[in-house]
Hints:
This protein has five helices and eight strands. It has helices at residues 11-19, 57-62, 76-85, 131-144, 161-169, and strands at residues 33-36, 44-51, 90-96, 99-108, 115-122, 151-156, 173-178, 184-189.
Amino acid sequence: MGTGTAGHVPVRRTRRRAARCGTLQRRRPLREVELTQGDRHEETMAITLREVAIDNFNDVVRLQPAPGQESFIAPNVLSIAQSKVAPNFVPLAIHNHGTVVGFLMFGQDIETRRWHIVRLMIGEQYQRRGYAREALKQLIAQLAQHPECEEVYISYMPDNVAAERLYESLGFRKTGEFDDAGEVVMRLELPKLGI
């Protein structure tokens, strides 16, 4: 799944959120996890999340969503730029066996104290292989270890059915809220996480 699984965070919303967000302690990259996808895909996954840095920046920026998914997410280069002016947003490259296959970004809103996954995208050529699910599982597991993180929020455009299904399958539930961009807001309570 690519940007079709991602919540879109418009620039206007991100600026407001960035203005009221604090600094997030950055952690070292998660260890490599090996998965076998079973009958659907014969390949083995080795997903790792790494901060966007000079060695993977160009690969992250080159990733493109599938046609028709462009309205679901901001360009990766814009997200990376936003993380530089709002250091509470942590941009991560999603790697599979060392190849950059996607991008995600998360952070904490200091006004609401909510933790948010604000970006998730998988490049067009890497979609429908389970990479988005595994990347989210790893990030959620990392957030669950943070002493201040008891729940995490994510949002998606109402017409992004793939994102809704993915998030629900991981335990996210609709809050009944819509953000200022009209996105459906979902929440995952981490103590009940069964991943």
